[in-house]
Amino acid sequence: MTDQLVVGRGEVYFKEYSSPGELYLGNTPGFSLDRKMETRKRSTSYDGKRVELPPVVVQDKISLSIATDNLAIENIGLWSTSTPDMSGQTSGGPYEETFTVRRGHFYQLGSSVNPAGLRHAVSVVLKQGVNTVPVDGNIEINYSQARFRILETANDLNNGEMIKVIFSVSASDSVSVQPAPKLVTGAIRYIGTNPIGPVWNVFFPEVDLTPRGSFDFKSDQWVSVQFDVNVRKKDFDSPFYHLTQVAY
After folding, report:
1. What pLDDT, on the 0 to 100 scale, is given for residue 97?
2. Of residues 6 and 162, more confidently modeled
3. Could you check whether the bond before residue 94 is cis, i.e. omega within 30 degrees of 0?
């Protein structure tokens, strides 16, 4: 038998049971298979001597570890065990929200509509009572983020006073993700593309995918997310996975 050296390369796809097709996870610098087989020793007595018998397999556990630095919203949704909301933000308003003045502080518009706030504010009007307060010289607005800061040197606003902000928002293609406490189940397919050594395709028909580790929103390195995958059998007689050495 000649040596078969391999430099591992390949593509990883995940098909959630509720999805019609397979999702390509993108670049996956980590994809590994782990197997742990638990056995129990047996022995018997014969002619006054203890004789060891072949051990019995009592558990065969197979798992995968996946890491991807492709932070597409679909992968973030997988890591959050939820489905991204692709509906976006519709135009709306005018909305009216009340704030307590604290010079130098920042405020988010739209929390009365969405707990995280809205984006793309337009037609912002500032009022105290029935009086309109000029925006210039009092607040600084980030219209894209729908946020404003009360200036330290605000001409007409003092700490502790109440202000009312009236605004509208324009439509946006923003996508939102909210974590859900659910188990993501489906199938995983690995398609080998390595340039050196034998090439394997592996299909895992029944898996549970769970997020692992941290999501580093700030980092000096390429940000990645990790998954732990529990590999199961579809039924008692089915294999954990199907591995094919590809012939070209």
Report:
1. 98
2. 162
3. yes
Mean predicted confidence (pLDDT) in 67-74: 96
- Tokens describing residue 142: 């980030």
Task: List all residues 6 or more positions away from 140 whose beta carbon is below 8 Å from its beta carbon.
Answer: 148, 149, 151
Beta-carbon contacts of 148 under 8 Å, excluding residues fewer than 6 positions away, are: 106, 107, 109, 124, 139, 140, 141, 142, 165
Amino acid type, 218 = K
Query: Counting runs of H as helices and runs of E as strands, what totals does the chain give?
Result: 1, 15
Cα 53 to Cα 41, 47, 49, 200, distances in angstroms: 7, 15, 13, 36
Q: Quick check: pTM over 0.90?
A: no
| Strands (E) located in the chain | 10-16, 23-24, 30-46, 49-68, 92-100, 106-108, 121-128, 131-133, 139-142, 147-150, 162-169, 184-192, 200-212, 225-231, 242-245
Tokens of 84: 């991204």
Domain locations along the chain:
10-83+178-245, 92-169
